[in-house]
Amino acid sequence: MISEKWRNLIGFWILGLCNNFAYVIMLSAAHDILKDQEQKDHVGSHNTTTTPAPVNESYLECNEISTGAILLADILPTLIIKLTAPFFILHLSYKIRVLTCVLFSLASFLVVSYSTGIWMSIIGVVCASISGGLGETTYFAFSSFFEKNVISAYSSGTGGAGIFGALSYAGLTSAGLSPRKTLLVMTIIPALMFISFFIVIKKPRQFYQKEYIVKYSEDTSSLLKESEDTDDKIKGRLTLREKLLLLKPLMKYMIPLCLVYIAEYFINQGLYELLYFNHIWLSEKEQYRWYQVDYQLGVFISRSSVNVFKINKLWTLPVLQCVNVAILTAQVFLRFIPNIWIIFALVLFEGLLGGAAFVNTFYKISEDIEAEFKEFSLSAATIADSVGISIAGAISIPAHNRICSLNLKM
């Protein structure tokens, strides 16, 4: 028999994997989604680039729409949920929240796989975003009922979603499976999320007491009086004023994380599709997919490392990530890096920094914040990465359009 501790660690790892899987798949498929829809919209036309390519010269080729558009569709609903959820979501049962996540995750794969136009694809991406955003705030708050190591397990699972999601998409499409059929295969993921929460994880006593209080909120005051000796976590709900006051001390954790994600996702969705090499063993599409795999490998390694290697000076991470932005932006313009393996090394380092920022931020919050404020604090801090990703998406679209208008030589 597996012990309760290991059941919970495995369960949280699976929750992290499933919660981020659809998000990762949509970003890995972003280049294909846009390319396929452009080809449908331009049947019989070769106008799929914004940069003309004169005979005998090689110029940078671009999608008409930046993959940053997919990023925004994948993150803006998440951001809205994260900005509002900590102030009302604790009034909803965890069961209702998780079932909602499962249904939206399933819808995302089905809608995108059967899409007949770019806007239908974007609706599917939005479904993935709703599932991921609601899931992240839910599962971090849920972790407050367990020992802090479940945060490491959950974070490792989100990293696993990155590497396994990007790798499975790149691998299946490279093996000849169409993007549509690949997405249909992924519908097993929402089922795993359901099984992990409702069957695998062993909930502690205080979790059921909290769920009972939420269900019968009209009797909250009497129930709380009866359970005063059980656990600090269920002594009462924070007022709106208390929640707003708690945000200020969280800024020292949230700002570095936000800055890391701005730099990170500007690289991912603003530069990856422009960093391809001509005349190598990988096509332009394949290079984009394998950049995603490489990046997610770095994220997975660092998100799984907090129990071995902790970073206390969180501000060093955005500084290093900005150095990555500078190098890779210069590569787009100057083409001074001669080999794709050097780009792979930089992309791996980018993923290591991003994963380290994520897991160390939430681990430090779980260590530093008092138990009675931990559930709200962990849920609220998830806003930081989504704000950063949204800013990156907004920046990457005009940056992509500007770069593609310059007729850069390869």
Give a short summary of the structure.
The chain has 410 residues and is mainly α.
State Rg.
Answer: 22 Å
Mean pLDDT: 82
Rounded to the nearest angstrom, the distance between the terminal CA atoms is: 59 Å
Order of helices and strands: HHHHHHHHHHHHHHHH
The total beta strand count reads 0
Instruction: Tell me the name of the CATH class.
Output: Mainly Alpha
Number of helices: 16
General form: globular
Strand content: under 5%
Q: Which segments are poorly predicted (pLDDT under 50) over 5 or more consecutive residues?
A: 44-56, 216-235
Structural class: mainly alpha
**Helix percent band:** over 70%
Sheet having the most strands: none
Write the CATH homologous superfamily: MFS general substrate transporter like domains
CATH topology-level fold name: Growth Hormone, Chain: A
CATH architecture: Up-down Bundle
Structural domains: how many? 1
Membrane topology: Multi-pass membrane protein
InterPro entries: Battenin_disease_Cln3, Battenin_disease_Cln3_subgr, MFS_trans_sf
Keywords: Lysosome, Membrane, Transmembrane, Transmembrane helix, Transport
Transmembrane segments: 12-30, 69-89, 96-112, 118-142, 154-177, 183-201, 250-267, 314-334, 341-363
